């Protein structure tokens, strides 16, 4: 009553053993593919982590630099500006990691929060009553009167351009992991599991436990079993080319590092612009939001303190170099995996599974 290992000679197999063999080949095939995938997956996961650490390091550096700008040049509003600064960099981090947000919304939300502080602490430092309604009116007015000139829009443009490749790379790496995980759990067809049993275990039914499959026979069986997986070859090659393009885009321009390091300067220029146009802004705000309570003898606009660039570059250079090295290592490794899905059958037939350097092997029917 054997269905797979039918043979003229007497056999030591039963139908139940054939069923056990089918379960065994399914388990072994999944384990073999997982073992092949492990190195590739390990490298991608490792680089996702390394990229994220390098991004976070650059973001922390840029955030610290921005915070120190407020503490040194705009002390009256430093404490209240801390939260909007933190939110801005959290939003940028989430954007890079693929969250459903935009650079524009993050930057404009920051300037919406910043304007009430600039207006009440720098342009009109005598304001004592900054109610919720008045603050909200200032936030909404910011969008109409554009107190920060072209600096807010320039910041959106610079960051959008430079963060795009980082966001795409982060999403592409996650997609790569998803593809690999999916191929590990590809179900074997009934024909495939029978062919694998015939190749690996039918010799056992004749007592031939040391004979292994012939190389050509193994390749034919594996290629048939993994036809759906090897169909990924063209798309996988395209995926590697896209990764190469993204990493080259990032490495060639250094825009990410420059844009992040320059955030503090864009904010500084924007605040200076608002201060210089203080009287016109006050006149417009008074019409739209009304006049808030002020202290006697209104203090004139706070002294404008232009900030010279801080020479705190060591951390930035280290994070920048680290990111570049990781890009280079990663893409070199991924280029070597270009034929990963095309050669999966060959790699599964390599090693202990087939008989090498021997005159005898199993061809599916007999020892040859």
From TrEMBL:
Alphabetic keyword roster: Cell membrane, Glycoprotein, GPI-anchor, Heparan sulfate, Lipoprotein, Membrane, Proteoglycan, Signal
Q: What is its main location?
A: membrane
A family per Pfam? Glypican
User: Mind telling me which InterPro entries this protein's record contains?
Assistant: Glypican (IPR001863), Glypican_CS (IPR019803)
Lipoprotein in keyword set: yes
UniProt subcellular location: Cell membrane
Instruction: Name a GO CC annotation attached to this entry.
Output: cell surface
Q: Does the keyword Heme apply?
A: no
State the membrane topology.
Lipid-anchor; GPI-anchor
Per the UniProt entry, what are the Gene Ontology biological process annotations, in alphabetical order?
cell migration; positive regulation of canonical Wnt signaling pathway; regulation of protein localization to membrane
Write out the similarity annotation: Belongs to the glypican family.
Task performed by this protein: Cell surface proteoglycan.
Q: What is this protein called?
A: GPC5 protein
């Amino acid at each position: 009553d054997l269905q797979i290992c039918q043979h003229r000679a007497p056999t030591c197999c039963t139908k139940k053993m054939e069923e056990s063999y089918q379960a065994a080949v399914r388990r072994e095939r999944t384990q073999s593919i997982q073992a092949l995938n492990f190195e590739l997956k390990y490298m991608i996961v490792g680089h996702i982590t390394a990229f994220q650490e390098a991004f976070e390091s650059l973001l922390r550096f840029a955030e610290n630099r921005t915070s120190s700008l407020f503490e040194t040049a705009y002390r009256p509003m430093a404490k209240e500006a801390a939260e909007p600064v933190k939110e801005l960099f959290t939003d940028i981090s989430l954007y890079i990691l693929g969250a459903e947000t935009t650079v524009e919304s993050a930057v404009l939300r920051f300037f919406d929060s910043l304007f009430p502080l600039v207006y009440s602490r720098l342009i009109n430092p005598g304001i004592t009553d900054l109610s919720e309604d008045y603050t909200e009116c200032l936030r909404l007015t910011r969008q109409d009167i554009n107190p920060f000139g072209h600096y807010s829009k320039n910041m959106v443009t610079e960051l959008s351009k430079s963060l795009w490749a980082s966001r795409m790379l982060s999403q592409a790496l996650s997609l790569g992991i998803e593809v690999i995980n999916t191929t590990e759990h590809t179900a074997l067809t009934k024909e495939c599991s029978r062919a694998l049993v015939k190749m690996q275990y039918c010799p056992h039914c004749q007592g031939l436990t040391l004979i292994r499959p012939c190389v050509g026979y193994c390749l034919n069986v594996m290629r048939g079993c993994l036809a759906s997986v090897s169909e990924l070859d063209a798309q996988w090659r395209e995926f590697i080319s896209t990764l190469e393009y993204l990493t080259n885009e990032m490495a060639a321009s250094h825009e990410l590092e420059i844009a992040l390091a320059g955030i503090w300067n864009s904010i500084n220029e924007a605040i200076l612009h608002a201060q210089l146009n203080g009287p016109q802004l006050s006149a417009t705000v008074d019409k739209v939001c009304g006049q808030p309570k002020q202290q006697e003898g209104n203090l004139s606009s706070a002294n404008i303190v232009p900030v010279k660039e801080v020479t705190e570059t060591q951390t930035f250079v280290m994070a920048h170099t680290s990111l570049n090295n990781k890009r280079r290592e990663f893409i070199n490794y991924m280029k070597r995996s270009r034929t990963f899905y095309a050669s999966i059958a060959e790699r599964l037939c390599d090693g202990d599974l087939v008989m090498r350097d021997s005159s005898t092997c199993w061809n599916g029917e007999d020892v040859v």
